[in-house]
Each structure stands twice: as C-alpha cells, then as structure tokens.
Amino acid sequence: MSFPVVGGIGLLAAQVSSGSVNVAPAALLAGNTPDVTTVTDSTGKPIAYLYDQFRLPATSAQISPAMKAAIVAIEDRRFFEHGGVDPVGTVRALVNDAGGGAQQGGSTLTQQYVKNYELYVAATTDAQRQAAIAPSLARKIHEAELAVQLDNELSKDEILTRYLDIVYFGHGAYGVAAAAQVYFGTTAAQLTIPEAALLAGMVQSPTQYDPVQHPDAATARRNVVIQQMHQLGSINDADAAAATASPLGVSPTADVPDEGCTAAGDAGYFCAYVVRYLKQAGFTSEQLASGGYTVRTTLDPDALAKAKAAVDSQVPPTTPHVADVLSFVQPGQSQHRITAMVANRTYGNGPGQSSYGLPFQPENLGAGSVYKIFTAATAMEQGLIGIDSVIDVPPSGYVSPIYKDGSGHAIPVHNAEETLAPQLTLTKALAESPNTAFVKLEESTGIAPIVDMALRLGMTSLNDAVSDQPGALSIADTVKAEKQASFTLGVTPTSDLELANVDATLQSHGMWCPPTPIDSVTDENGNPVPIKEQACNQAVAPALADTLANGLSQDDGPGGTSAAAASAEDWHRPTSAKTGTTQIFQSAAFVGATPQLAGAAIVFDDSRNPRPICDGSPPSTCSSGTLFGGGAPARTFYKAANDILAGTPVVPLAAPAPEYLRGRDS
C-alpha cells in the first residue's frame, strides 16, 4: 500500500536531506545488529559477555505474543494497516517539527525502526548519533522513505521483530530479549502481559518510566499500555484487570552483566586468553563486541575451582608481591585442550588484582631448571646419551668454557646441593637437578639446538622480540647469537601455560598442538564459525618423547626435588615432573604430568622491583630466599592435580624405548 504524501516526501528529500547517517537500504534490509558475544565454560554456562551494546538476539518465535501486542498498542495502533508511513500522523509531525513546535509523534514502528537502526547500528560518531535523533524535517523525510521501502520488502512480523530486537529499554538493555533478562530474569518468549506492558511503556522514555528509579510512574505508564491493549482487543477484561492489579515484579538490581573478562571472576585469566586466542585467529575486537557469537570454551569449571583453591591455599590472594599461577592442559594427538588456568590474583584493575595475563603471558624471572628438559631431549635426539646413560656431575664452582658473563669472562657454575655424586644417570640427574651436569652437557650439544628443542616442544613465546625496537631479534635468536649457556638453567621469560603444554607434548608421544581454549564458536543463528588454529605436528619422535617422559618419573620419589611436596599431598600417581629455581630465588617452577593431565605452576615476585622469596605459610619476599620449585610450586600442582584426578584410573606412563636407553655412541 502507498500514499500520495510519499511522493512529495521523495521530492523534498532530494533537496533538503543532509546531516543524517543516510544508511544504505541494503544494510537496513539486512538488519544486522550489534549483539552480545557470550563466552561459556565447557558445560555451556556463561562466564563472560563481550559487547558494546548488551543485546541478545531473538527471533519472532522467541518473543511472546503479549510483547508484540503491547508495543503495537502503545506505539503504532495502525501498524498492520499502513504501508510503513501513517499519513495523518506523519504530516502532523512534519508541520510541527518544521515550525519549531513540540514533537507530536506520528512515527510508525517502521519509522522508529529506521531511526533506531541509524542510531544504534549505522552511526559511528557522536555527530552521526545526534543527527540520527535530530528533530529535523530532513530526518523525518529520510525515515519515511526507508520505512515505505521496508514495508514493501519485509513482512509486518519481520519489521516488528526487528524493532523489538533493536530498541533501547534502559539500564543498558538493548532489545526485548536483553530487557526481559535484565528486568525480570526471564526470556522474551516468557514475558507475561504486565511484564510486556511495562517494557512497551518504557520505550517512549526509559528514564522517565524507569521501574527501579520511578516505580509509580512506571506503573501508571504500564497500566496505560494495558488499557490500550484492552481497547484493541488484544486482551480480555479478566486479563486486563489481573495485569493492572499485578505488582511490577522488577529485579531491584536490574542491570546488564558487566562487560569483559574482568567480570569473569576466577575464570578471568582464562577468558582473557580466549579473547587473545580469537584475535590471533583473525577476529577483531569489533567483531567480538558485536558479532553475537557463542564461544564455548574448554574450561572445566570443576578443575578451575580446584586449581584456584590450590593456588590460594599456597599463596593467598592478599600476599604482597608473590604470585602463584597454575595451568592444566589435556594431552592428545589432535588437540591440547586447556582445562583450567588460574592465579592467586584476581583478574582486574583493582587493588591486589592484575590485568596482566599472569598464567599465560611470560613472566620475566624465568623457570629455572625446568629448562633442563630441553637439554636432555636434545642430547638424546643427537644420540649423545640415553635416559640410562651416566653423565658427569662436576662439583660446584665448575668453570665451563661456554658459560660466560656479558663481557665474555668465564664464570663458575654452582649446584644447589654440594653432596651430589660425581656421576649420575640422566634419569637421576633430571630428578636431582645438578646445574653443572647440564651446562657440561651443553658443551656437547651446542646451545642453538637446545633453544630449537624448546620451541618445538612448546615454548613458542621464545619467538617474541626482546624489545619493541624495530628489527629487534627474538628471544630465541638472541640466545643463539650470544651463545647464552645459561639457557639450560631457565633464565629467560617463561609462560606457565607453555610449560604445561611442554609436558602435554611429551605425554602425547611427542605430538605438539597449540594449547587451545576453544571448543566451538557459533554465530547468532547457531551456525558453526571456523577457527584458524595452528596444526599439530610431531615435535620429536614418539619413542624419544615416551622415554624422556618416563625418565622424568623420579622427581617425586626418593631423592627427587619434589618428593616432600608429593608426600605432603598424598600423591601416588606415575608422574613426569621437573622442578626449577632461579638463582636468587625470585621465582620457582614445577611441571608435572600424567597421561591424562599436564600442568605447570610458577611462584614469583610480581612486583616492579622483584626480591627473593622465602618459602613458608605463606611464602613472602625476604632478603636471601629459600623458595625452590619443589616447595610451593610443587605443592600447588600436587594438591590441584590430586583433587582434579580423584576417582579417575591411575594410568602408567609410556614405557621407554630401547633405542633411547643408551646413546648411539655408547
């Protein structure tokens, strides 16, 4: 249906339309709106919302008939009769607006949809947003033209659904689905007559008819809507009377959920990693904030709770300057799923919180002797030694020809223990961790192959540049170029998550996969969205990985550096494990894995001026330092892993391969 007034409007529009967003008809017909991206745990429970506008999409079938009837009754009684523009109301509005008089309304729901689309979707600047609502003749003409076009292209139900999906209802709620959740804790499909009438009445002025701040005004306005619904025959006498007598029933704390990962609580760090991971996969910040995706993650809420309890029990969140981080990854041949990632600090910007990705961003203090895993793997791959080979353990003070300071002067290497045997099998050396033995081993392997091994097994952040300066080398290339023999002692920046993935790679028979937090991503219509992830690859031979993993099995046994921690937590599972402590006790680390679960914990000073840490209840900064990887980090891992794996079968480690028991030269 068309009206003569539209022709005049079209002629005038060509002359005076200016200052508006002038949204393209094709975009308006497509009707895409900025919707909330929901991040969930592995069970589908939301942990965070990403948005610019809190809008939850709703199809026609997901909006109650009462809501549709209410908005038509109060905003556009002739909605199903006109052709997008109601001529009598439009002319009245044009005359009054042009003459500077008070706005008289007259806009149909279709016209209002056009205005809201320009305001909430097309406008990207403050000037455009002001133009979208300016009381100008040009804007009214523009709206009317597009409204007629929409009415010709879309069904009435499509227009009504789109209008209810886009309009603002106050308290940060855009669209009826968001409003239903915010005000009533329900869905748009379940809105009752009085609830629908309240929301429909708010559209005219969400502030004036705010049911939280102005309940009397909101009630009066709601009852007007109910009366209009009754007059139109949308509801009968009994329904109208019951709806008018009902209380508002609005949540006293009506508000949208906080936006972003700072609102995710204990899952905040995991959420932050999800966002980073998706951006690296090609999603933009704008897409995540408006795309309406559902991101189902690999986060196990039970594992998260137990991991968080473990870090907090060892280093309470209020402990000054001492951070405790813990990550768990599931081994696998096709995927390494992150099940939990936590820190004793809450993710956020408040006092005692941190917005730095503590469990996944590299901490600058290092992980200590955990890096000896890479030296052992390199020597075994080169055929120099096997896991049962006997290696030399020079005494403390050993001066290696390759271990030098920044000026090129040789410096002595010291061990944490002074009573070590002069020779140990590689298995025993990994458990007792003499520094001198692994620095001497570097003399045969070379430093560059060890760095490459660390990269292959999972320490991918070694590819990060050492500085922000243009042309700066990566950490890996710097270590190689400067022949930093201290690499085996774990002095480089280290990501806890990457350490966990190293052990996951060994438990996966040498198959490296990126540590993924993503189970699936779907769009607002439920369609799968493909994610660009790095492909898994065979980092080392399966036989080598199995043998090394088996050789790391004595760390929790007699003489092992984590034996006391394992005993304290009543740990009795076959485990590949390694501890690490930095030279002046500012950080210490532990990696451990069973065939079902791999994890890593790092305790470190997270202040701007790190100091040594003394282990205790809780650990604290001190002058000399007593923190070892077998202390708080190992206790953190064993407590969490014990609780997470409780009730699951005890699975043996893979058997060592004969070809890697002894080196080729033996």
Automatic annotation (TrEMBL):
Entry superkingdom: Bacteria
Catalytic activity entry: [GlcNAc-(1->4)-Mur2Ac(oyl-L-Ala-gamma-D-Glu-L-Lys-D-Ala-D-Ala)](n)-di-trans,octa-cis-undecaprenyl diphosphate + beta-D-GlcNAc-(1->4)-Mur2Ac(oyl-L-Ala-gamma-D-Glu-L-Lys-D-Ala-D-Ala)-di-trans,octa-cis-undecaprenyl diphosphate = [GlcNAc-(1->4)-Mur2Ac(oyl-L-Ala-gamma-D-Glu-L-Lys-D-Ala-D-Ala)](n+1)-di-trans,octa-cis-undecaprenyl diphosphate + di-trans,octa-cis-undecaprenyl diphosphate + H(+); Preferential cleavage: (Ac)2-L-Lys-D-Ala-|-D-Ala. Also transpeptidation of peptidyl-alanyl moieties that are N-acyl substituents of D-alanine
Domain Penicillin-binding protein transpeptidase: 337-598
Pfam families linked: Transgly (PF00912), Transpeptidase (PF00905)
Keywords tagged on the record: Carboxypeptidase, Glycosyltransferase, Hydrolase, Multifunctional enzyme, Protease, Transferase
Spans through the membrane: none
InterPro entries: Beta-lactam/transpept-like, Glyco_trans_51, Glycosyltr_51/Transpeptidase, Lysozyme-like_dom_sf, PBP_transglycosylase, PCN-bd_Tpept
Record's keyword annotation contains Hydrolase: yes
Domain annotation Glycosyl transferase family: ranges: 46-230
Stretches the record annotates as Disordered: 551-572
Keyword DNA-binding annotated: no
Protein name as catalogued: Penicillin-binding protein
